[in-house]
């Protein structure tokens, strides 16, 4: 989530050009939040995923074109019947404690990840066996063919399939690991970790990069810095001031209201994002409670929600934000226009006419406004005003985000709220929370019998072309049922010192390939 950033002019006035106060081999970064959960399987939090990519490694990884490439795996093969996958690890892989990475480690890691990940659970639901055959080789045998195996192993959707030593991976998935040992390019230094202040990750001298160039999360992860210091600075303006003064090298989320100032600073560069690296916002509707238990009333919001108005209310320049009608993240694999004609040309007049044609009887629409998160707050305010103008009886209730989360778990007491999530996580029907929890006891309480077999067909489809077609069919049903209404897609740029070279443009911050 991106958080509100207070504008503090006095701090910016003090932001002077100064020599960095840290050593040349030490890169100082401010991330979206403090890293609290160090177990990347245990939590779906994006900040834990970021930590995971630094300290752990993956069997496969996604490149900038969205293709899944081998990472820890040297080669693999699939049997003609599509049921047996044989994986062989690269030579020279080591854990941070000096022990060699083995196939048994990877099998144990996959089994643990499979209890935490939606993609993993689908793979293991059709798995007959997963066993090591020697120190470097393991075999996955399925009950039925699936086109998702490689995609699941290299997908950046949290929790990611990170590898751990077998002794650690045997920890049950519902318990946090207590020993942080990975095989990634950075080593976690427990002795240097000061909660509430900073975390230190050190270059892993024995890390063996792949031979090809680094490309997003794939390729050769070559580390050119000695240490990565992750500093905790909760206030965005304070962090931006430190960046301009040279005390910080990288800031994951530059505050929107400070972008004009940062853009004018020749010693600072901004990284804009597209596609899966963007956030996608949506209004989640309560299909279990009146008035939105009626899909006809939910569909009125297609005529009501003007995405450009929401994005403008957030103060987002067009280069950082754009309307997006698909449920599956514009600019990614399953981006589709299926069904989107329902959302063309929204207006208050059209919404009024659509509402009059329904059985709406004036029931209150409880709009939850999270006052401590900018996007949910502003998007809720915009929606509440337009709902009133269209003829709904609106009850706007202001609360913090934690209260929104608690309230949405109940079937009564709320109607709609604004939210946003990472584009990668929403980019597939199997990981998109608006779709994947159809007919499940989860927020929204939406259930449409048409979606379940389509989801199964999507999971089993062997070819990307088939999955694209099915994703479009799923979206058409979603537009018909309207369990959620997209309100736009946006990026929150990263900012970094111009002295950095080779920074990989990624909304998941990575610090291999970077030079100072």
Descriptors:
alpha+beta, seven-stranded mixed beta sheet, 28% helix, globular, disordered N terminus
Helix-strand layout with pairing:
Elements: H1 9-13, E1 26-30, H2 46-55, E2 60-62, E3 68-70, E4 73-78, E5 84-89, H3 103-113, H4 118-125, E6 127-132, E7 137-142, H5 149-154, H6 166-169, E8 186-188, E9 198-203, E10 227-231, H7 236-244, E11 250-251, H8 259-264, E12 268-271, E13 279-285, H9 295-304, H10 307-313, E14 321-322, H11 348-356, E15 364-370, H12 374-390, E16 393-399, H13 401-408, E17 416-422, H14 423-426, H15 433-436, H16 451-460, H17 464-481, E18 484-490, E19 494-497
Parallel strand pairs: 1-10, 1-11, 15-16, 15-17
Antiparallel strand pairs: 2-3, 4-5, 5-7, 6-7, 8-9, 9-10, 11-19, 12-19, 13-17, 13-18, 14-18
Q: Any overview of this molecule?
A:
The chain has 516 residues and is α+β, with helices and mostly antiparallel strands. The chain has 17 helices and 19 strands. The strands form four sheets. A seven-stranded mixed sheet has the order 8-9-10-1-11-19-12. It has a six-stranded mixed sheet with strand order 14-18-13-17-15-16. A four-stranded antiparallel sheet has the order 4-5-7-6. A hairpin with a 5-residue loop joins strand 2 and strand 3. Helix 9 packs antiparallel against helix 11. The longest helix has 18 residues. 48% of the residues are buried.
């Amino acid at each position: 989530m991106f958080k509100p950033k207070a504008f503090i002019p006095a701090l910016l006035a003090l932001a002077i050009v100064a020599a960095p106060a840290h050593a040349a081999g030490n890169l100082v970064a401010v991330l979206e939040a403090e890293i609290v959960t160090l177990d990347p399987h245990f939590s779906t939090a994006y900040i834990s995923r970021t930590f995971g990519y630094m300290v752990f490694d993956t069997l496969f990884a996604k490149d900038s074109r969205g293709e899944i490439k081998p990472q820890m795996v040297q080669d693999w093969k699939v049997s003609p019947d599509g049921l047996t996958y044989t994986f062989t690890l690269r030579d020279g892989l080591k854990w941070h404690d000096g022990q060699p990475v083995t196939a048994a480690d990877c099998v144990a890691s996959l089994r643990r990840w499979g209890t935490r990940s939606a993609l993993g659970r689908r793979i293991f639901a059709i798995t007959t066996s997963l066993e090591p055959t020697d120190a470097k080789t393991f075999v996955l045998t399925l009950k039925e063919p699936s086109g998702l195996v490689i995609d699941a192993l290299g997908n950046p959707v949290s929790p990611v399939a990170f590898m751990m030593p077998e002794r650690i991976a045997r920890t049950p998935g519902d318990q946090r690991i207590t020993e942080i040992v990975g095989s990634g390019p950075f080593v976690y230094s427990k002795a240097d970790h000061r909660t509430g202040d900073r975390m230190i990750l050190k270059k892993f001298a024995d890390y063996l990069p792949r031979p090809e160039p680094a490309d997003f999360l794939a390729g050769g992860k070559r580390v050119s810095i000695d240490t990565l210091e992750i500093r905790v600075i909760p206030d965005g303006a304070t962090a931006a001031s430190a960046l301009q003064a040279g005390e910080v090298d990288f800031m994951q989320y530059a505050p929107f209201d400070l972008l004009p100032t940062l853009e004018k600073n020749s010693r600072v560069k901004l990284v804009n994002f597209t596609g899966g690296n963007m956030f996608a916002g949506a209004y989640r509707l309560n299909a279990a409670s009146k008035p939105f238990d009626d899909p006809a009333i939910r569909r009125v919001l297609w005529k009501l929600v003007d995405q450009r108005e929401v994005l403008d209310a957030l103060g987002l320049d067009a280069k950082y934000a754009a309307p997006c009608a698909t449920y599956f993240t514009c600019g990614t694999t399953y981006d589709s226009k299926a069904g989107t004609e329902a959302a063309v040309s929204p207006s208050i007049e059209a919404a009024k006419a659509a509402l009059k044609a329904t059985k709406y009887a004036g029931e209150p629409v409880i709009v939850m406004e999270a006052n401590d998160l900018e996007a949910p707050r502003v998007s809720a305010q915009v929606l509440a005003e337009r709902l009133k103008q269209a003829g709904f009886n609106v009850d706007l209730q202001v609360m913090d985000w934690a209260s929104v989360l608690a309230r949405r778990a109940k079937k009564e007491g709320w109607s709609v709220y604004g939210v946003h999530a990472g584009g990668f996580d929403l980019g597939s029907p199997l990981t998109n929370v608006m779709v994947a929890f159809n007919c499940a006891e989860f927020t929204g309480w939406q259930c449409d019998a048409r979606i379940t077999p389509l989801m199964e067909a999507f999971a089993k489809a062997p070819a990307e072309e088939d999955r694209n077609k099915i994703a479009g069919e799923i979206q058409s049903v979603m537009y018909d049922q309207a369990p959620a209404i997209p309100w736009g897609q946006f990026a929150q740029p990263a900012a970094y010192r111009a002295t950095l070279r080779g920074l990989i443009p990624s909304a998941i911050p990575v610090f291999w390939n970077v030079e100072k």
